[in-house]
Amino acid sequence: MRDVIQRQIEVGLDHLKLAVPATDKLAQFVTLMDKWNKAYNLTSVRNAEAMVPRHILDSLVVMPHLEGARFIDVGTGPGLPGLPLAIAMPDSHFTLLDSNGKRTRFMFQAVLELGLKNVEIVNSRVEAYQPEVPFDGVLSRAFASLSDMLRWCAHLPAPDGKFFALKAHLSEDELSEVPKSFKVNKQIQLSDYDTDRTRQMVVLESL
Question: What string of pLDDT tens digits covers the 207 residues of the chain?
């Protein structure tokens, strides 16, 4: 089964024109998530093959647009997009933060089994987490509205750090509610592969 998943990932990455050598570890992560999902309800996607476009490719498509080497993924759930990105970007460091204990237990096990040395797992609410060193990038995927994300995560980035928000649906109303102390740097339409959703990433920074 893992071989089928790995091949599916490789075909998707080729379509997205992304060079990621560690497709074996990405496939292992999918099989782990599928196994744990049966008991822990990590994701509503119940089929391992369906997890590839919805969770793996949907996470990795942001790679060409990230800036920096230290990232925090807030409200990461079972480690999305942080764990696929950590596998694909071994020279960058990822802190994965979630307040749900079941999800963080899964991530600890995944990091152990995958042998990842560039990941830190934090079980906490984002408002309560105070990093020793600020981050180059703050990532969020289906975490909150832009205004809530910026309000709750304002203490996390370095002075020149950026917020990278993955959005399936972005309205003008949501954009208009971005606090005046922040600005929208870019709106990037993300490449799509085998999903029925449009995705974009909004890059923001503080003024």
Answer: 899 999 999 999 999 999 999 999 999 999 999 999 988 989 999 999 999 999 999 999 999 999 999 999 999 999 999 999 999 999 999 999 999 999 999 999 999 999 999 999 999 999 999 999 999 999 999 788 999 999 999 999 999 999 999 998 888 999 999 999 999 999 999 987 765 667 899 999 999
Q: How far separated are the first and last CA of the chain, in Å rounded?
A: 49
Contact 23, 60 (CB under 8 A): no
Rounded to whole angstroms, how far apart are CA atoms 143 and 179?
17
Q: Please tell me the distance from the alpha carbon of residue 77 to that of residue 155, in angstroms, as a whole number.
A: 21
Q: Is there a contact between 120 and 104 (Cβ–Cβ < 8 Å)?
A: no
Check: CB of residue 3 under 8 Å from CB of residue 84.
no
Query: In CATH terms, is domain 2-206 a member of 3.40.50.150?
Result: yes
Verify cis geometry, omega within 30 degrees of 0, for the bond prior to 159: no
Name the token pair of 67.
């800036």
